[in-house]
Amino acid sequence: MALHDDRKEYVKGSLDDRWLNADPMTQFAAWLEEYLASGADDATAFALSTVSAEGQPDARIVLLKELRGRDLVFFTNYASKKGRDLAKNPSAHALFFWPSLERQVRICGLVRRIPAHESDAYFASRPLGSQWGAVASSQSQPITSRADMEVQWAKVQQANPNGVARPKHWGGYALSVDRIEFWQGRASRLHDRIQFNLSANDTWTAQRLQP
User: Fold this and answer.
1) What is the per-residue pLDDT across 27-67, written as a single tens digit (0 to 9) for each?
2) Domain boundaries defined on the chain
3) Of residues 68, 189, 193, 208, which has the active-site annotation?
């Protein structure tokens, strides 16, 4: 299947050099707010990439649940594939792609678990169905059929009609940003790219990259 002619011009924005002195996390928050305001579905979704102990990369879509200074907070099953990867190698990459604004943001950093009481509070705020699902699913493990998965879920629901406490295998992570790149599509593929790196003294240095 040839896709040679599936192309477009990017004309919706630009990044000029005045951004080289900006606080990148403030800028990230502003871009995120703009994308949320656009009404896009799953506006907080991003691709989280991890690397296993054997050096094999993997990626999946997760949802950003909080932005805390340099930290991106998300939640998952600690025993999942991503959880196991992060236990062996805490380095991770987050990719936000916002096509309606012709933008993407690439982020690298180290990931750590957030405190248990913060995970407890978030878990209690989730819809009951999501709570039951977190308990019922042994994420990333094989199961014989969809029907068996639904049976597991129903058993948890029936035993806990008013909700459940957060299981110990489920909780939050914070990805602490030490490199972030803003990408704005431009005409003729001369895209704008500005990368910020965190220095040893916790200050940001910025550099424009060729597209």
Assistant:
1) 999 999 999 999 999 999 999 999 999 999 999 999 999 99
2) 17-116+170-209
3) 189
* pLDDT tens string 83-112: 999 999 999 999 999 999 999 999 999 999
Q: From 75, 74, 70, select the one nearest 29 (Cα to Cα).
A: 70
Q: Which helix (H) or strand (E) holds 129?
A: helix 128-136
Q: Which CATH number fits domain 17-116+170-209: 2.30.110.10, 2.40.440.10, 3.30.300.20, 2.60.40.10?
A: 2.30.110.10
Phi, psi of 84 (to 5 degrees): -65, -40
The question of whether 189 is a catalytic residue gets the answer yes
Neighbours of 157 (CB within 10 A): 17
- Give the separation between CA 161 and CA 155, rounded to whole angstroms: 10
Residue 89 contacts residue 67 (beta carbons within 8 Å): no
Residue of 37, 42, 96, 52 lying closest to 72 (CA atoms)? 96
